[in-house]
Amino acid sequence: MKQMVGKFTGLAVVLVSLCGSTAGVQSAVTVIEGGILIDGTGRPPASGAGAVVVVRGNRIAAVGKKGAVSYPKDARIIRADNKFILPGLIDGHVHYHEWQGELHLAHGVTTVKDTGNPVEWLESLSQAIAEGRIVGPRIFYTGNSLTAPPALRDHHIGLENAEMARRAVRLLKAHGAVAIKAHQQITPELLHIVCDEARQAGLPVTGHLRRFGAREAALAGIDGIEHLTGIPRSTGPHPELFKDKEQENELAGYYDDLNEAAEAREENFAPLIRLLVAKRVAIQPTLMTWFRIALENRADLAREDAAYARMESLRYVPESVRKLWQTSAIYEPPDEAALTRFRLAERKMSRFLRLFHDAGGRLLAGSSTSVMIPGLSFHRELEMLARLGLRPREVIEIATRGNAEFLRQDKQLGTITAGKLADLIIVERNPLEDIRNLRKIALVMKDGQVIDTAYHADYAMPIPRPKLTRPVWLETQLK
Predict the structure, then answer these.
(1) In the prediction, which pLDDT does 5 show?
(2) I need a labelling partner for 233 at 20 to 30 A (CA). Which of 21, 64, 92, 479 fits?
């Protein structure tokens, strides 16, 4: 049975059918029995190791203790003794490519939020995954990012006026977007219009800011801030010192963001935090992406990446990507002076986030997956959140229920609760003692199905990301 091969061979699994074997038609009910349940709600795990999770079809039918929950005699039984059962992880910020599916799932990431790709491609891709034609995580998405002219990235839409902004929001929702993303060049006036239209459509708005700061974005009605962008600009001394780097290469803009963060003034943190908390603006810091070059262990991270680049079973990953994994360049600052400044930026932004969290602010978790290993990068992000001083329980809640709530999918996902979709993971060791134990994946279930988390050199990618030329599809619908 393919679903029980690969990484699951070490897990004690017993499948029981009417015939007493795994052959033939299986029961529609699967039961995870034993183990300790960390359900994502914030409740402490029940004492003992006798959790029972009953899955009927693709839904969680019941959750409880052994002896207190009934299920059919022909149910398939998965033993989880001495292990820990958690909701599937939700990466709240990815830039998805067709080769990423197995890597996300192998690391327990059963759901992702894509924050910038052509909406028509994401619509087709997410539907194919939902129908089982492609192996991959659930994909929720923002679709094309909305900005002001000129549209500088291939999927960006340059909004020329208020009516175009409103129509863009409506079209994105019609094609499956669950949130709207505003990008760097957008003006405060356009952002206000986008937020107003999105609110009427029942969609949150998140933003990668540059032209103005987090304060102006919060006042315009934004719901989320990506990459910590806008925080330095609203807390620093001289915003005009940091010019718009959008038309330069991405590395120059990345360094500029870090240099601006190093200029942030901590005495300006409190008023901004009060505003963001009052407006319920969530922050998706993508700490690993921002501060990877300031970390003491960056050489270890580079070696870990290089090991994935050498895996024969991942030869389907594009050569350009594997070459990037093979080099340590993405972890190296340009010089020692820059390293000193970037570490100052990391300390200041970490201080801001801790104060924000302690004041009741909403932190989210996303890896960005722009230059690192999908799935693995999310675990690194969770470990970075723990470095802020958050307890492992809080980090787990952010990576499950918190991200589901921002996507407005918490009635379906985010906790192990009766009635929700059966997305869950089993890990070998207690993540409440050490968040790094989340890496020790023993089993992944998505949509009620146990997933084969081995990598396959012939991984199917039938819907590649299209090469975009102007006008992109969404632009043709707007004009």
Answers:
(1) 33
(2) 92
Residue 130: predicted pLDDT: 96
Residue whose structure tokens are 């995580």 = 137
- Cα 74 to chain center, whole Å? 36
Domain residue ranges in the chain: 89-414
- Of 8, 114, 104, which Cα lies nearest the Cα of 459? 104
Q: What is the pLDDT of residue 369?
A: 85
> Shortest CA distance to 82 belongs to which of 451, 426, 443, 397?
426
Distance (Å, rounded) from C-alpha 387 to C-alpha 42?
20
Map residue 352 onto helix, strand or coil. Answer: helix
Angle at alpha carbon of residue 113, lines to 32 and 439, rounded to 5°: 45
Q: Does domain 89-414 have CATH number 3.20.20.80?
A: no
Mean pLDDT by groups of 10 residues along the chain of 479 residues: 36 34 57 96 83 97 94 96 97 97 98 98 98 97 97 95 98 98 96 98 97 96 97 83 57 90 97 98 97 96 97 97 94 96 98 98 94 96 98 98 98 98 98 98 98 97 95 95
Pairwise CA distance, residues 429 & 55, whole Å: 23
Q: Which two tokens stand for residue 210?
A: 């540059």
Residue with tokens 């529609």: 28
| Residue that the structure tokens 């009927």 belong to | 56
Which positions ≥6 away from 85 have C-beta within 8 Å?
Answer: 32, 35, 36, 37, 38, 51, 53, 416, 424, 425, 426
The residue type found at 175 is H
Which helix (H) or strand (E) segment holds residue 449: the answer is strand 449-450
DSSP string, 222-281: --EEETTTTHHHHHSS-GGGS---TTS-HHHHHHHHHHHHHT--GGGHHHHHHHHHHTT-
CA–CA gap between residue 169 and residue 198 (Å, rounded): 6
Q: Which residues are registered as beta bridge partners of 33?
A: 52, 79
Q: Please count the other Cβ atoms lying within 10 Å of the Cβ belonging to residue 216.
A: 18
In DSSP terms, which residues pair with 32 in a beta bridge? 53, 78
Could you tell me the two tokens for 131?
A: 């129908």
